[in-house]
Specification:
alpha+beta; single chain
Amino acid sequence: MRSKWCRAFPGVAEEVAHARHFVAALLDGYGPVEDAVLVVSELATNAVRHSLSGSAGGWFLVVVCFGGDDLVRIEVVDQGGERVPHLCDVTSQEEGGRGLLLIAACAKDWGVKNWPDGRSVWAELAREGA
């Protein structure tokens, strides 16, 4: 059985916590809650910090898909920007830049899809017991 849930959030840092709660509530008992909360936290933070979603009046969208293939897909759609999300070569002295590395470590797969008015960054996680 496939199902998809989505919710839009204002593009401000305080809304990242609301995005985490949204995902945690949906996955409670059905999926990898801790990994999913990490994924949405990193992707929503990146949307607010590094895309037009963080501009005045900006927004980001969180999409959670439950597939019949024992995967949960977490996707954050933002309003795009000049920089394309990518894995950084981070030294141990740097504070930031590890978000996508963390996602790559816990996800079965992840990627970026560009749209005419933005982009989506997604990660697929194995469902509990899968």
